[in-house]
């Protein structure tokens, strides 16, 4: 296992996740990001933007990294679009100076991803998108409503359809979270999606079972029995393939050339991977980003970072364990692991 980590380190990819807004315009029933933490950090202040830029510059300047992969995450990252563009512009220019590739990725609920924003993001080097649709509107709108309870399916799907007319290359991962009650609705959604996205090498469909991931609503969540999960997920992949929809394979991941995705390694264990929340707190695992006590350090005024060794070791201890290829966090929460949970 340590050999594998060494091999991954040799790729010299810096994987940085930034949370520009902890706030979210959705209230998904299975969300693990509790409101109490969200509300504190709605957008990124100019002081914190400055610190993040310095952090990026300090690291790119070392010349050690071949590539910097910036992943925008939330909350809903598009609620602070201005910060995304500002930091992408800055990083692209520093990357040019120090001959370091910069690639952007965004994980968004898709509601605010209109065609104007989509094109701007592409222009700024954000080439990888992940949008979640949990079935046709009957199921999706119940599972992923707006904060005020209103439906979201139609707008997200329309946003996705608009992206087809763009000639640039990009990767659009359309993810469905699978629960006992939305399986048929996901198939209905795939039937619809196949009319628009079949055989288009820019769109990929993925499926993940919903797990109890530490959210307030965990005790009320209906999840698929652990021993049935693999079979149901495979059934959906087969269904999508039969409709001519793409599912991600090794080639796709190779094209993206990211870590840890292509190496199937937990992001928290990859040494050159850090999550920056917009109050300057640092984390290793996306499932813990709204829990202050899980912070592994913070970012200083000059862009340097201060790490708490014991908090880092909390993740490092899993490196030699079989859990490194599953999900240590879900294991800690008493969930069955083996299927990536982000
Ligand atoms: S695999 Fe699990 S523990 Fe690792 S980063 Fe993802 S959610 Fe966190």
TrEMBL record:
<dbReference type="InterPro" id="IPR013785">
    <property type="entry name" value="Aldolase_TIM"/>
</dbReference>
<feature type="domain" description="Radical SAM core">
    <location>
        <begin position="8"/>
        <end position="243"/>
    </location>
</feature>
<keyword id="KW-0479">Metal-binding</keyword>
<keyword id="KW-0949">S-adenosyl-L-methionine</keyword>
<dbReference type="Pfam" id="PF04055">
    <property type="entry name" value="Radical_SAM"/>
</dbReference>
<dbReference type="InterPro" id="IPR007197">
    <property type="entry name" value="rSAM"/>
</dbReference>
<dbReference type="GO" id="GO:0003824">
    <property type="term" value="F:catalytic activity"/>
</dbReference>
<protein>
    <recommendedName>
        <fullName>Radical SAM core domain-containing protein</fullName>
    </recommendedName>
</protein>
<keyword id="KW-0408">Iron</keyword>
<dbReference type="GO" id="GO:0046872">
    <property type="term" value="F:metal ion binding"/>
</dbReference>
<dbReference type="GO" id="GO:0051539">
    <property type="term" value="F:4 iron, 4 sulfur cluster binding"/>
</dbReference>
<keyword id="KW-0004">4Fe-4S</keyword>
<dbReference type="InterPro" id="IPR058240">
    <property type="entry name" value="rSAM_sf"/>
</dbReference>
<keyword id="KW-0411">Iron-sulfur</keyword>
